[in-house]
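Is this the right way to post structure tokens for a design question? Let me know if I should format differently. Anyway, here goes:
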């Protein structure tokens, strides 16, 4: 399972070479190394950012939606999707080669039993940023854009509990057979706006943290949510956590226990 990547949409617009180097060149090196090591099955973490800004009539987004990413992050992930497909079709592919591409929507939450949580340096993701603001009243959440063509003017995303993501990986990996090339969206099929998320974070934490309205963040599409029918039908996978509040509650539980993230030796 290949998870390693740079994954900040905004940052990718400022440092594209680092993104292509890690997400594309690094992934190709990994592919060569695993072939030498005799590994033939690969599950690749891709992203809904490969879809770009689909027109309204193609939302919810299915796997057949045209992929036209609008930021270097999405383009670097899409390029490696193509590498996998090309390799699979070629004589260079190791005997029995098979792959799965999982296009994640917005992964959120934490292990419900509190053992593992989210800790990015720096933290840019909406939910952990809101929870940090609930812990520290010096922090203010900037809403990146209130003029999007959505009901409340803020971006809509499909938040998926990390526990559901784990479950999808296990199901897909166990199902892969030589010659397979599977592609699945990993989403709940439900979209929440930035304001919905902020409201839910305030409710779960009980803290009325501060927010302000800012300008749009470069590279952010207005609306992204999945049509998860394909993985539901083929793999019997279905998100167990469809409500944003449970994801936030699990993330909050972890953050209260680990306000400074992982320790050096964790
Ligand atoms: O302080 C903040 C942080 C985020 N947002 C907005 O909240 C939404 C969600 O942002 P974020 O949590 O940063 O996630 P995304 O940028 O949507 O990116 C995530 O989701 C992508 C798929 O959409 C994945 O591919 C990426 O790896 C992952 O970082 C976006 O509309 C942001 O503009 C704010 O308004 N203020």
């Amino acid at each position: 399972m290949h998870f390693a990547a740079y994954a900040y949409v905004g940052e990718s617009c400022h440092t594209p070479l680092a993104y292509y180097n890690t997400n594309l060149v690094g992934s190709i090196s990994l592919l060569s190394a695993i072939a030498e090591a005799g590994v033939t099955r690969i599950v690749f973490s891709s992203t809904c950012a490969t879809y770009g800004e689909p027109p309204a009539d193609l939302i919810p987004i299915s796997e057949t939606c045209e992929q036209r990413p609008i930021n270097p992050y999405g383009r670097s992930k899409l390029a490696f999707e193509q590498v996998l497909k090309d390799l699979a079709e070629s004589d260079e592919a190791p005997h029995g080669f098979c792959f799965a591409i999982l296009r994640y929507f917005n992964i959120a939450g934490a292990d419900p039993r509190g053992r593992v949580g989210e800790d990015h340096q720096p933290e840019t993701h909406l939910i952990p940023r809101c929870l940090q603001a609930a812990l520290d009243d010096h922090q203010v959440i900037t809403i990146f854009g209130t003029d999007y063509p959505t009901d409340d003017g803020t971006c809509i995303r499909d938040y998926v509990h990390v526990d559901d993501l784990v479950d999808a990986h296990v199901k897909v990996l166990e199902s892969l057979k030589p010659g397979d090339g599977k592609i699945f969206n990993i989403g709940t099929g439900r979209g929440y706006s930035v304001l919905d998320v902020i409201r839910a974070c305030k409710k779960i934490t009980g803290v009325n943290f501060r927010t302000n309205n800012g300008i749009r963040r470069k590279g952010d599409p207005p609306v992204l949510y999945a049509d998860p029918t394909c993985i539901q039908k083929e793999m019997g996978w279905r998100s167990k956590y469809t409500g944003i509040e449970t994801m936030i509650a699990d993330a909050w539980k972890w953050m209260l226990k680990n306000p400074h993230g992982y320790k050096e030796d964790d």
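Format looks fine. Someone answered above. Worth noting: The chain has a mean pLDDT of 96. The helical segments are 9-14, 16-36, 72-88, 126-135, 162-175, 194-205, 229-235, 244-257.
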